[in-house]
Every structure is written in C-alpha cells, then in structure tokens.
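Hi again,

Forgot to attach this to my earlier email, sorry! This is the prediction with beta-D-glucopyranose bound. I've pasted everything inline since the attachment limit keeps bouncing my files.
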Amino acid sequence: MITTFKKGSGLSAVLGLAIAAASHGAAADCSYSISNEWSSGYTAEITVTNDGNSTVNGWDVNWQYNSNQLTNSWNAQISGSNPYTATDMGWNGTLQPGQSVSFGFQGNKNGGSAEQPTLEGTLCDGGTSSSSASSVASSVASSEAQSSSVSSAPDGEGLQCNWYGTTYSLCSDTQSGWGYEDGESCVSRTTCESQPAPYGVVGGNNSSSESSVASSVSSSVSSSVSSSVSSSVSSSVSSSASSASSSAPDGDYVRVDNPFEGTQMYVNPMWSENAMARPGGEAIANEPSAVWMDRRGAITDGIGLKGHLDEALNQGAETFMFVVYNLPNRDCAALASNGELRISENGFQLYQDEYIAPIKEILSLPKYSDLHIVAIIEVDSLPNLVTNLDEPDCQEAAGPGGYADGIQHALNELGDLPNVYSYVDIAHSGWLGWSDNFSEAVQLIGDTVKGTEKGVDSIAGYVTNSANYTPLEEPYLPDPSLQVGGQPVRSASFYEWNPYFGELEFAQDWRDAMIQNGFPSDIGMLIDTGRNGWGGPDRPTGVSDSSDLDTYVDESRIDRRYHRGNWCNQPGGVGERPQANPAPGIDAYVWVKPQGESDGISTADFEPDPNDPAKQHDPMCGPDENNPDAGVPTGALPNAPHAGRWFPEAFDLLLDNAYPPLD
Ligand code: BGC
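Structure tokens for the complex follow:
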C-alpha cells in the first residue's frame, strides 16, 4: 500500500511513539509495541523476556486481533491466521535468564486501528520454562509452526520465506513497495522449514547456533544475516584495533574517524530477499547496501526508516547507511529520477519540514544513539551545478531554496547528531575529472559545506560513483599520459582528455584537494563499487598491441560502455565487496545503489510510477536511442522499470559480470 507522508498523523507515527502493552500476566515478560502506523497498516514488535531463573530453550507467543491481519514477519515463524502463533527461529530460541528476544511483523489494519492484543504463550504468563526445544515443539502452537502452512494473505499475496527463515509477502509492492512488481508472479509457499540456508550463514532454520545468540551484544536478536556480513566486512579490516563499540562508559557517543572500520553493517532485508530470489543471488544477498530515502513517503512506507533502524539493531549491526535524496528540482539535468519537490512550489520549505525534520526525529531516538549512521548526501546534485547550468531546472537549483540551501540545511540538521556521518556526493571521475570541472567543483562543493553551521566539520567526507559504473581503475591503462601513435592515451575518444580513468585516484586526489582547501586531514572518501566491476566474458585480459590510439584504448579498457557519460542501466558487473579502509584516504568501498534496482524506465510510453509520479523516461535509458551529447548508443538495457524499481535482468547481468568474480 502506498501512502503519502502527511504531517500530523504521519508524523506521530514517524516519531515512533511506541505503545508498549504488557501482557495480561503478572510479570511483564511479553510486550507488544506498535513501531509504525500508517493509514492502512502498521508494523509492530513483540519482545519476549526470560524473567525466570533458568534457561529457556524455545518459546512461542499467541495472540488474536479483532480486525488486524498479518502480512509478513521477521525473526520469528508465524503460523495460524488469527489467532496467530509466533515461534522462535531455532537460532533465537535459547534465552538465558534475563535475556530478551524481539521479533517484528507488518499487518493490515483492515479499516480499524492498529490493535494491541493480549499475549499468551510459553513465557507470557509470568512462568519460566526450562523446556527443551522438543517439548516446546509438542505444544499445539509450536507443532503448527513446524508442520503446517504459513497462512496465505488475501488477494493472492503469498507469504514467502527468506533464507534466514522469516516470512514475507512476495507480491508486496501493493503493501509496502518492496518492489516485486516486475515480472514476478505471486508465489505461495507452505512452509519456511525447507528454505536452504545460504553459504556461510550461521543458523538457518533449525541449525541453531546458540553461540551466535549468546554472543549477541544486546541480548536481543543477533540475526544470522549480520553475523555473516560482519565477517565479510571486518575481515578486510586487517588488524584494525578499533572497537565496534563507540560508547564511552557514561553512555555518551564517541565519534570515530572512520564509521566503517571494524564494524558490522546493516543488510537491507528487502533487497536481500529480492537478491536471494535470483539464481546465484545468494552470493551477494547478505552484503550491506544503502537504504534510499528518496521521497517523503519512503520515511514511513513499508517498514520505513524506523523499521530499517530497528532491524539494524536486531541484526546487531553497528553501521547503518542511508541516502538523503529528495532535493527540490532533483535530477535537474535528466528525467529518470525527477522528484516530488519543486523549488517553485515551496520545495525548500517542504524539504525542511516534511523530509529532513522527520528523518532527524527518527535518527534522534535514543535507541539508535550507538549506531554509526552514515548519510550519503544528495547524489549528483552539486555536480549538476558545475556542468549543467544550461538546463533551466539546474539554473533554478543554483539559486535560493535550491541545492546549496537544501544540502546546507541537511548538513546542519544531521550535524546536530553526534553519531551521524555525512558524506557529500561528488559524482564520479567521468563527470568531474577534467581539471576545470574538478577545480570548479572543489570550490563550489567546498564552499557549500563551509557555509554550514559546523563548516568543514559538518561532514565525514565525500562519496564518489554513487549509482554509477566507473571502475576503480583501468588495470591495462595505468598511465593516461602514455604516448600511443604519437598521442597521449587520455586524448582517445573514450577519455576526451580526461586525466582520470578510474575512481580510486580521482577520489584520493579530491580528498587531497579538499584538505588543501581547508578541510581537516581526517576526511575520508567512499566509493560506490556496487556495479563497477566490469568482469564477464568481454573483459580484456591484457593490454592491446594496436598502434592506433582509439583501438588501443578500446581493446584495453575494462569499462565497456559506449561512452563514459552513459549512466542508465549499463551492463556492468558487481564490483569490490563492501569493505573498510581498502586504500589510503578511502574510508570504505560501499554499495550505495543496490544492484538490480533500475536507473530509469526504458520506454517513452510509460505509466507513471505511483510512488514517484515525477519520474520520467530519459532518452539515456532508451536502448535504441543515442547519447545525445556523444552521438553513440546509450547501451541501456531494455525492459527497465522506473528508477529504483526491481529490475531482475539487470541484477542477473551484474552477477554474471562481477569482478572480482563471485564464488
Ligand atoms: C532512484 C531512487 C532509488 C535509487 C536506488 C535512484 O535512481 O531515483 O528512487 O531509490 O535509485 O535504487
């Protein structure tokens, strides 16, 4: 269900005024709290606490609604259809005395309000249990969960299981905008028991790992997703001594230099489920990527920002990355990602009041105060003011209430929160690499940041290549000045004299230039490596021996695009996996643009996206069209949906072309 953000009712939901309802039992050992509510639905969380003296092995909770109805859940197995029974997942079934576990779910209100039902179950009557998993399984509720069907939601929406065993609604675009709308049919599964666990993941369904739960810092759920991610991210952080915990003894947050170092990052379960549903998708499905707040409604729709943050806590994640992407006149030089706000329609005020303010309210909740929250600030915006002022929308965006004002406001507000790390977007080397663009951008972007309340201290650094495809480096073209056929390599048609062939050197030089421009030497860079791998069968394996410059470059370059300005749905490959400190000056390689999400709709004859009616067809997304500036084909993949929507064929291709290759 798509809801638009409304000030007032929506805001109070955003603020997460969670109402904890203790169970009817004498001890408050099961509690139900509504974490988010919108016109048609809600998300809620149940926390089960072992308040007895002995270990509990396995638990269940039962409840009944008057009119509400569950549509999907996480971190528990749900059976029945009102009354409902939730049972542990195996890996979160063991509770030491005093330990709690939480699980969550989403539901339809069916015309009523979000209810607070009475809870019953193993631990909900104040009693303790030392029962074994098998004795719990013998209870009616639990045996249902082991053997009977997961209930089907109405309207053909099947409940699916993800690889860590929770259920979700497959055709959930109408419910939560999770994005299964393209060519995916509704599938009803009958049980979560048979789902295969992905490679290397602790737990799965009944292969419970007590240690993974026992080692959970918060004694709430330590998701198996994050356990595996933790190892993949931190393994790249060689001998980092940095502690994941950044709380001082008095609970005050201590800011760190690099919020990625030695930390476990949040895995977006919605993207993860999309990825898992594709052949071979498990190879990357448990990697962390950014959550995009690309319109006001994104703050509350589905699980919303708060739901993601809660899930991050459940995963035991320490770093959460999201994208601030809703400036008025957004995407001013293109059409594919035009946004909901216009400068001429009070956009700057709306951006402040209805976008940044509710985001800040959520991020300010005390329960998130230990998370490192990384904010990617407004992809492609200021770079458009460097090179695209011939576009009327960009001209307007260069003025009052435009991009600089919006970004300064965002940085000021987020700058009030000690645990938020803002990285301002600087496009990529194929855009700002030429020396005149580069120096103008250093000036303009530097001045914008300096104009904030905290000045140069309002950011942790800059981010390059967000949602783009530019490789980290060209392994067979290491020297842009090398002479071939009497000409420097950088003068080839493909490079057009741009001295930067890849993001790594560009990012490092940008950082140096900004330090010279007055920024502190601890600023760091991020590079989006989600789609810049350029592996697969067409990847060159060595340097060309041609003496014709263009042939030499075309046969040597790994970037297979027709033109470096081609940005829409390119046949790139998954690049370097997210990792901290991969190179000097680089805080992390991150995945900003989740693989398999479209860059823009391919056809000019399109239905508007109901979430984002301003999004249009950009000619750069037309597979049969030319890049108008370069006069070469766009190379865009066919059959693409609107920007941000799930585009499975693109995901499959990115897997095929991954570099480094996937296991
Ligand atoms: C779209 C956003 C989307 C993001 C991530 C952008 O191109 O405009 O709506 O959230 O990509 O897929």
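Residues 292, 294, 337, 467, 593-594, 597, 599, 643-644 surround beta-D-glucopyranose (CB under 6 Å). The chain has three domains: 2-134, 137-254, 263-656.

That should be everything now.

G.
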